[in-house]
Design a protein that fits this description.
six-stranded mixed beta sheet; alpha/beta; about 35% helix; 12 helices
């Protein structure tokens, strides 16, 4: 599939145009410059030609700010991936020295560049387009990304050399693995290490990642869609609008995922916000793998794997049947074990047990060996069990007096099912209904 990269200096409307081309709201849009930091991917089509779109951060030449340096790397990687480059400038501000710097960089590479002039809202701005010919990139295409005006002519120029055909996304139907956690626990570093690409900007500053970033991993027998998300904080800590939208995208990434890798910081221990994220994953019925990162920073004399794991399981109970893996991403310790655990949890979440098998194995246990305790002199008799056709494990137990089934017995049944069919890392829902 052909790839289009949108580049330009900060705050010219790249993310607004990205959202319009992809018919989404995946990229955060704000009047503050420098909002986009990571490469954001989407899909678009025009006149039967399907292509991928990459949104990039604002390109600033020569700055020594940590984010600007990392964003320049991301833009360079996006240009390297792309077949065609859309260079976006701002009609309201006119031609700036920063535009000239970016244009000079683009002229040095061999790929076709289309010049788009954004925020053209009136005739006076149309008359001022002539100055952009000085960039030496051919005819400028006037557009208004926020309304879509002029984007048809721009897209005609972009796709003229693209191949035709209804190409489907090769990642459709793949397991979606969301990497979640508090800010600065190592989520982006983990994905960059696993994929071998600097897919996400990594700095020591908490809150660097703002968009949810998708990466495909197809190596060593694994085939996943990874989602790197913004760090989730308590609502009282989310002060700026940008971070609020980032957190909302992280919540939506959890909702859209099949399995969540919940990453903790070993040096800080299990905090309340980690438990809140775990609860969010559980409420959305997603598979979960807990990864304790930065284990290399912990004093091993006073903290062992077993002690730390026991503490975690006590805090997350009653749903404590969860894989817990201790890693050091920076030292590449046990990171592939995380992938193996995520795949196992995905398979467990997708597991279907035939009605015949579940009744043959489980019915003797709940009818004869360990039936529900009697309540008010009445005996509860379970007649029949079946699994519901849902994306995650849900089971219905039909019985004569479902209102008398108490939570301890529900937990007993769930634990036996986990032992018998290996639902490790997967929340389950069990219903008792009248026959």
């Amino acid at each position: 599939m052909n790839i289009l990269a949108i580049v330009g200096r900060p705050n010219v409307g790249k993310s607004t145009l990205f959202n319009r081309l992809t018919e989404s709201r995946d990229a955060i849009v704000d009047s503050t410059s420098g909002v986009t930091r990571d490469r954001q991917y989407g899909h678009s089509d025009w006149n039967g030609k399907h292509f991928s779109v990459i949104d990039t951060g604002g390109y600033v030449m020569g700055g020594d700010d940590e984010f600007e340096v990392e964003i320049r790397k991301q833009v360079a990687l996006a240009i390297d991936e792309a077949d065609t480059i859309l260079f976006l400038v701002d009609a309201r501000e006119g031609l700036t020295p920063m535009d000239e710097d970016v244009a000079d960089m683009l002229r040095r590479q061999p790929k076709p560049v289309v010049l788009g002039v954004n925020k053209v809202d009136n005739a006076a701005q149309m008359d001022a387009l002539g100055e952009f010919y000085a960039l030496g990139l051919g005819d400028p295409y006037p557009i208004a990304g926020i309304t879509g005006s002029g984007t048809g002519e721009l897209l005609d120029a972009i796709v003229k050399d693209f191949s035709e055909g209804d190409e489907t996304d090769a990642t459709d139907g793949l397991p979606r693995i969301a990497v979640v956690g508090r800010p600065n626990v190592g989520k982006s570093s983990f994905i960059n290490t696993i994929t071998g690409q600097e897919r996400s900007v990594v700095t020591p500053i908490a809150g660097t990642t703002r968009d949810s970033v998708y990466s495909r991993y197809n190596l060593f027998g694994f085939d996943f869609n990874f989602v790197d998300t913004a760090g989730l904080r308590r609502k009282s800590k989310v002060s700026e609008d940008l971070e609020f939208y980032s957190v909302m995208r992280s919540v939506r990434a959890i909702e859209a995922a099949d399995v969540c890798i919940l990453m903790l910081d070993a040096s800080q221990g299990l905090e309340q916000q980690d438990l809140n994220i775990f609860s969010l994953i559980q409420r959305n019925h997603k598979g979960v793998v807990i990864v304790v990162n930065k284990w290399d920073l912990v004093q091993k004399e006073t903290n062992t794997h077993r002690d730390f794991e026991k503490l975690i399981k006590e805090r997350i109970a009653p749903f404590d049947d969860v894989p817990i893996i201790f890693t050091s991403v920076i030292n590449k310790q046990r990171i592939f074990k995380v992938l193996e655990a995520a795949r196992s949890v995905y398979e467990a979440r997708s597991r279907r047990i035939s009605t015949a098998d579940i009744n043959e194995v489980l019915l003797p246990i709940v009818k004869e060996q360990n039936p529900p305790p009697s309540v008010k002199g009445k005996w509860i008799k379970i007649k029949y069990i079946t699994q519901l056709p849902t994306p995650y494990p849900q089971f219905v137990f039909f019985c004569n007096l479902p209102q008398y089934i108490r939570d301890p017995y529900k937990r007993f049944v769930e634990n036996r099912m986990r032992e018998l069919w290996d639902f490790h890392g997967v929340p389950m829902t069990i219903y008792f209904r009248a026959k």
